[in-house]
Design a protein that fits this description.
With 333 residues, the chain is an alpha+beta fold. The chain folds into two domains: 238 residues, no CATH class; 63 residues, no CATH class. The chain has eleven helices and four strands; from the N terminus they run H-H-H-H-H-H-H-H-H-E-E-E-H-E-H. Strand 2 and strand 3 form a beta hairpin. The radius of gyration is 28 Å and the shape is elongated. The two termini are 52 Å apart.
Length: 333
């Protein structure tokens, strides 16, 4: 029986202390080390984006306060200032809403396709780490980074939107303002990242995965915009034809518009418009009301969370497909 010397014990103790002093270990260390460029890039986007939102918000409020708002109403400011402010805000929202597509390309498409194309993934089969655990680490790293990038930016954007009130755009459902809100932006980033992972697993080529992910993300966002009206039930209001809009229709999103009779029968908005005598035509049909279907501003939050829930569910399906695809498939180009 041998007894370790003091030198050996000190070396062993030093080695143990070195291991304890290290940062991330195991798969976490591998993810950080392998994808440190993506990690640093997302950190830079978050910091620069947050500073940009803070600056834009401050500059916009200075402009509005200098024009007399909120002491004056938005309509009372006059000139082209309200339109300029709204257009600037919508432009900022569009820039932020494009971030999930970039994350889908940089995180989702490149994350696994690069490993498969360059043969890095084959090393997994020679290590003691199970393949499933490695795949889950990949997925967890990508989705966590996508969330950590979009969540603070979307929260800051929501703070900006609330501070400028009526200048945040009237068609909030189909403008980029809806897509840049906190739940929708984060859920969209999760979806596009998951989509990129699946496409990368299927193509096994980085360039192909990037192009297809970008196209698929764009097509999905366009299709999603077409179904936004299904996120809630539109409200309906009738008011006398030819009169001013009621206050209830301020800052709402119009879904449809008709003309109708006192009994509630509806006709298309263009009914009798091209008739030789529109008034006589409407009197003959009994048309006396203008009817709107719309979404109120108080429905916005519920619709945002509904959209986010749909996107998260779709992301879960994509992740399941990704894991099923690579669980037993060869990790070769």
């Amino acid at each position: 029986m041998t007894t370790p010397t003091h030198t050996e014990a000190a070396r062993d103790g030093l080695g143990s202390r070195d291991v304890r002093r290290r940062g991330p270990r195991g798969l976490l260390w591998l993810m950080v080390r392998q994808h440190r460029i993506a990690l640093l890039s997302c950190l830079a986007v978050t910091v620069v984006g947050a500073a940009w939102i803070l600056y834009q918000r401050g500059a916009m409020l200075d402009t509005l306060h200098g024009a007399g708002w909120p002491a004056k109403s938005a309509d009372a400011l006059g000139g082209d200032l309200p339109n300029q402010v709204t257009n600037r805000f919508n432009s900022a929202a569009s820039t932020l809403a494009s971030l999930p597509a970039l994350l889908g390309v940089c995180l989702g498409a490149s994350l696994i396709a690069s490993d498969l194309e360059h043969g890095t993934a084959r090393l997994v089969t020679t290590q003691s780490v199970p393949r499933n655990r490695w795949l889950l680490a990949k997925v967890g790293f990508a989705l966590t980074l996508a969330t950590a990038t979009t969540l603070p930016l979307s929260l800051l954007f929501g703070w900006w939107r609330d501070s400028v009130g009526p200048f945040a755009g009237t068609n909030w459902l189909h403008d980029a303002v809806f897509d840049a809100s906190a739940p929708v932006l984060v859920a969209t980033a999760l979806f596009t990242t998951s989509l990129g992972l699946v496409i990368g697993a299927l193509t096994r080529r980085v360039v192909s995965a990037i192009v297809l992910t970008l196209l698929a993300s764009w097509a999905t966002m366009v299709a999603g915009d077409m179904f936004k009206d299904e996120l809630a039930t539109p409200r309906r209001i009738s008011y006398p034809l030819g009169s001013d809009l009621p206050a209830a229709l301020d800052h709402v999103v119009q879904v449809d518009q008709w003309v109708g009779t006192a009994s509630g029968k509806l006709y298309g908005w263009g009914t009798c418009v091209h008739d030789a005598s529109p008034e006589a035509c409407r009197a003959n049909l009994g048309i006396v009301n203008s009817v709107w279907a719309y979404f109120g501003d108080d429905q916005r939050t519920g619709m945002e969370w509904t959209a986010a829930a749909v996107l998260v569910a779709a992301s879960a399906v994509l992740i399941a497909l990704f894991l099923w695809r690579l669980r037993r498939a060869p990790l070769t180009p």
